[in-house]
From TrEMBL:
Name of the protein described by the UniProt record: LamG-like jellyroll fold domain-containing protein
Record keywords, A-Z: Disulfide bond, Signal
Domain of life: Bacteria
Alphabetical list of InterPro entries matching this protein: ConA-like_dom_sf, LamG-like
Species per Swiss-Prot/TrEMBL record: Flavihumibacter petaseus NBRC 106054
Pfam entry (one): Laminin_G_3
SUPFAM superfamilies: Concanavalin A-like lectins/glucanases (SSF49899)
Domain LamG-like jellyroll fold: 105-270
Listed GO MF terms: hydrolase activity, hydrolyzing O-glycosyl compounds
Gene Ontology BP, a term: carbohydrate metabolic process
SMART domains: LamGL
Signal peptide: none
């Protein structure tokens, strides 16, 4: 009996030792920024842009799936929380996908940005989708132009529609004053409305051209991004090497981007306010 006990004890000790060696030999994956507040559990894509090392892909990793970009030539700068990505000329970050965001029928896009007027039309992001092969090859994008320290033209593409704050009714906030600001847009399929938020507060008095999402003249209802492919941050298809327009007026984003989030639901005003307060 004593001999059997010793043999059993030796076997346990051996297994523990082997397990410890295997754990030590496992390659380190590094630590990724974790999202402490995920309203409703609806967060699909989250790039904190917090990397500080020499590996540009690791610096812009998506923390939801530990998904590295396919390419990233942007550099790290001080952000609103930790580090951020500094936009460049003719370049962008390219992600292989947006995880399960493509299944979303209602959405929220949330990011922090720091920008000044460049005199150009600049794109902040684009979701590549060849469904719209007639021109844009993009199911979702955001662009800015004609700005000042107090207002700017802001346009968000949703499927085959441009949601516009035009020259006649510019986005009436200091989005190009050179400071960090939080910008969010939430689309609710039940109302077919796009709501805009600036620095945690709902933007009132938006023109119908910026809020009423339609299809063939009627309320759009559920969105459909299921055919979407890679996701480009800091530019548009042109800068991400995807099919789409290559016009000279299409420029990458020259400002800084931080805390980029995609949700598969329309967040509430309180949830968006919390993102601003917590610098998320």
């Amino acid at each position: 009996m004593m001999q059997a006990f010793k043999t059993y004890g030796s076997l346990v000790a051996l297994l523990i030792a082997i397990g410890a060696c295997q754990k030590m030999d496992e390659p380190a994956l590094g630590s990724y920024p974790e999202d402490a507040v995920s309203p409703g559990g609806t967060l699909s894509f989250y790039a904190a842009m917090d990397g500080t090392g020499s590996d540009a892909l690791r610096n812009a990793v998506d923390s939801m799936r530990a998904m590295f970009p396919a390419s990233n030539s942007l550099t790290s700068v001080e952000g609103v929380s930790g580090k951020a990505m500094q936009g460049g000329t003719g370049t962008a970050i390219v992600y292989p996908s947006t995880n399960d965001f493509v299944k979303a029928t209602s959405i929220t896009v949330s990011l922090w940005l720091k920008h000044t007027e460049s005199g150009k039309t600049e794109f902040l992001y684009g979701l590549v989708d060849d469904t719209y092969s007639g021109w844009s090859h993009s199911g979702l994008f955001l662009m800015m132009e004609h700005g000042s320290p107090t207002e700017a033209v802001v346009k968000m593409g949703i499927m085959d529609q441009w949601m516009e704050w035009p020259d006649s009714h510019k986005f009436p906030y200091p989005i190009m004053d050179g400071n960090w600001h939080h910008l969010a847009a939430a689309y609710d399929e039940t109302t077919s409305k796009l709501s805009w938020y600036f620095d945690g507060e709902f933007v009132p008095d938006a023109p119908a051209s910026a809020t009423d999402v339609k299809k063939d003249g009627a309320a759009r209802g559920p969105l459909n991004f299921t055919a979407a492919k890679k996701f480009i941050v800091g530019g548009w298809n042109k800068q991400g090497g995807a099919d789409g327009p290559k016009d000279d007026w299409i420029n990458s984003f020259s400002g800084s981007i931080d805390q980029f989030r995609l949700y598969n639901a329309a967040l509430t005003a309180d949830e968006i306010h919390d993102l601003f307060v917590n610098k998320q």
